[in-house]
Amino acid sequence: MAELTNLETFVTAVKAGSFAAAARLLDISPAMVGRRVQALEEEHGARLIERTTRAQRLTELGESFFAQAETVLEAMAELGELTRSEPGQLTGRIRATGPATLGIHRLAAVVARFCEANPEVVVELSLSDRRADLIAEGFDLAIRIGELQASSMIARTVGTYQLMCAAAPEYLAAHGTPMTPGELKGHRCILNLNMSPRGRWPFFGPGGASIIAEVEGGLQIDNGEAQLSAALAGAGVVYLPVDLVRGPIADGRLVHLLPHWQTMTLPIHILYPSRRLVPRRVRVFMDAIAAALAD
C-alpha cells in the first residue's frame, strides 16, 4: 500500500505542477511529497522528476512512468468499485465548479436530483464567475460557458446558453426605446466584466446579417445577478442570459429589447483533466449534467 500511496503522490505532483501544489491537494507537507516521490524513485532505481527550487520537469523515463502510473491507478479504482458490497452504488466525493448564474438557475437542481439518487456521494459545487484551475485547486470537473482556450483538458459540449437584451420600463420611459442595435450607442448600458470585449454586443438580423453594437456605460459589473438588480433599478440596458431575464420580462419588470434581432448564443462545456482516471461517480455525474443541459 505504501508504493500505491507514493504512486498517487507522484501523479498528483506531476498534474499539479509542483510539490507545494500537490501538498495542498493531498493535505500533507511539501517535504512529505518529496519523500514519497524519492521513495518511488529509489524503489525503481530511476530518476523520474528533475527538480530545482524553482521548477520541476519529468525525465524522459518519468514521462513513460507517469502514463503507466495513471493506468495502474485507474485499474485500482475500477477494482475498488467492483469489490464493494453494492457494486451498483456510487460512493465518494465529487468536486465541481461552474459559473454563478448557470449554477443557481440550472446546475443546483441537477445536483440535488443526483444527490437524492446517489446518497453515498458527496458533491461540492463551487459557483464563481472566476475560472478556477482544475488541477491546482483539486476539482474533478468544471462547467464552462463560451469558447475555450487551448489546453490539455478534455472538453465535452453539453448545451447552449443564450443572452437577451432588456431594460426596465422606467429607464425606457426616461431615455426612449432603441429600435435597432446601432441605437444602443446612445444609451446607458450595464457592461459585463466577464465578457470579452465587454463593449461589443453581437446581434443577428433577418437573413443572418450580423451587427456588433458598440456600447458604453459607467456601470460595469462581474456578476449577472448584480447586473440584473441594477437593470431592475433603472440603471440602464443589459445583455444577460435568458435564465436571468425570463422571469422579470414575463412579469413586466423588464422589457425585451430588439425582439426581432437574435442575440448571442454560447456553447456550454464540461471540462475535465483526462479521459483516463475518471471515477465512475464522476462519469455518471457528468452524464446527468449533460442530459439536463441538453433539455
Q: Give the C-alpha Rg.
A: 24 Å
CATH architecture annotation of the largest domain: 3-Layer(aba) Sandwich
How do the SSEs run, as a string of H and E?
Answer: HHHEEHEHEHEEHEEEEHEHEEEH
Q: Provide the residue-averaged pLDDT.
A: 88
Domains, number: 3
Q: Which residue ranges are poorly predicted, with pLDDT under 50 across at least 5 consecutive positions?
A: none
Structural class: alpha+beta
Measured by DSSP, the beta-strand proportion falls in: 15-25%
Distance between the termini: 44 Å
**CATH topology category name of the largest domain:** D-Maltodextrin-Binding Protein, domain 2
Topology, number of strands:
14
Oligomer: single chain
Q: Which shape, going by the Cα principal axes?
A: elongated
**Which sheet architecture does the biggest sheet show?**
7 strands, mixed
Question: Total helix count?
Answer: 10
Highest-level CATH class of the largest domain: Alpha Beta
| Proportion of helical residues | 40-55%
List the helices and strands and how they pair.
Elements lengths: L1 H15 L2 H8 L3 H15 L4 E3 L4 E3 L1 H23 L9 E7 L1 H18 L3 E7 L6 H4 L3 E5 L8 E14 L1 H7 L15 E2 L7 E5 L5 E5 L5 E2 L2 H9 L5 E4 H9 L4 E2 L5 E2 L1 E8 L7 H15 L1
Parallel strand pairs: 3-4, 3-5, 7-10
Antiparallel strand pairs: 1-2, 5-14, 6-11, 6-12, 6-14, 8-9, 8-13
Helix pairs in contact: 1-2, 1-3, 1-4, 2-3, 5-10
Give a short summary of the structure.
This protein is α+β, with helices and mostly antiparallel strands. Helix content is 42%, strand content 23%. The chain folds into three domains: 2-82, Arc Repressor Mutant, subunit A (Orthogonal Bundle); 92-121 and 140-158 and 267-294, D-Maltodextrin-Binding Protein, domain 2 (3-Layer(aba) Sandwich); 161-265, 3-Layer(aba) Sandwich (D-Maltodextrin-Binding Protein, domain 2), CATH 3.40.190.290.
